[in-house]
């Protein structure tokens, strides 16, 4: 393995009251339990800008500062701690931002995004896993490196690493849909489907062999969603239903497509008063399962949940096994490729301001923004 350079470039948050800055820092070294990954692509969220600029709306995203910004990424193993047994130098890996305490399954946090606020997660975010992936090199836990079959994915299937980065969106609804045991052939409602994670949920449900009913307020975006899915998966079974705000009428619109087995919801806080989850509860069959992944505090017609034996499951992100399964699914070729999967906009670290601004706008199904800290793969 080539030796690491002594320094590298990283996008640093010194304090939420100050602008980000690209700085030259000492390159991290591999200690026990860690890998140093050379980062080729790092995913940018639609609200990354607000997490780092001190916006009131995202004040609850507590973080230790200073830190290297970032979240999940894709790169090549550049150095391994002495206790690595399976990972190999040079291997292409997905770097998962979900850091879990090794001695407490209940302690977890999002790398360089949110320290989760518990004493244990705060300690890990502050003292051990502080720095993220908006950098040429990142030190991450060994178990957060999920190998990607480069020969198959980038060779035979022709995926670009930046397009593969869309997997950090896709993996989230995969976690929720697996959690409620979605089966091929089942009908699943995705609501609202016009956002980043909702759109990803539609693509994942189609790849899992389900029939999808996508709900949303914006008819033009629903039409774009359907077109995007059918462009990459012409035989997909996909319907759309507009959220009108009329709970029973929207339930009837859903029922028009026959028995509904399952649903997944990504309603953000600002949509908490929307009636669409209640419509889903009205429309779903007896024994239906609903994965709740958004932050929706709306009561969900409790008497119908009881009388119809509906299972409601909250889900934060996904488990590590979900990631491993997802990587297998990807390499079987179940997802579309190229622009049929995702339109990715790529930025250098130096162009961070434009990158974060574009990320806030370039959202919805098949849209992704990434940093490319290292230009060559
Ligand atoms: N559980 C987890 O692990 C997990 C992981 C990631 C994200 N999330 C959560 O998922 C939610 C969505 O995230 P995102 O990044 O996909 O957001 P996003 O891209 O901003 O999408 C927001 C979606 O909500 C819809 N919406 C907004 N206000 C609405 C209203 N009043 N009534 C009905 N629909 C409304 C939008 O529809 P329009 O197109 O009509 O505006 C859009 O479809 C957030 O709460 C986020 O925290 C959870």
Low-confidence region ranges:
none
Intertermini distance: 16 Å
Structural class designation: alpha/beta
Q: Compounds present?
A: NADP nicotinamide-adenine-dinucleotide phosphate
The helix content, as a percent range, equals 25-40%
CATH topology of the largest domain: Quinone Oxidoreductase, Chain A, domain 1
Report the top-level CATH class of the largest domain.
Alpha Beta
Order of helices and strands: EEEHEEEEEHEEHHHEHEHEHEHEHEHEHE
Radius of gyration from the alpha-carbon trace, in angstroms: 21 Å
How many separate structural domains?
A: 2
Percent of sequence in beta strands: 15-25%
Mean pLDDT score, rounded? 95
Q: How does CATH name the architecture of the largest domain?
A: Alpha-Beta Complex
Q: List the total number of helices.
A: 12
Going by CATH, the homologous superfamily of the largest domain would be Medium-chain alcohol dehydrogenases, catalytic domain
Instruction: Tell me about the largest β-sheet.
Output: 7 strands, mixed
- Global shape: globular
**What's the number of extended β-strand segments?**
18
InterPro entries: ADH-like_C, ADH-like_N, GroES-like_sf, NAD(P)-bd_dom_sf, Zn-ADH-like_protein
Pfam family, one: ADH_zinc_N
Protein name: GroES-like protein
Domain Alcohol dehydrogenase-like N-terminal: 34-149
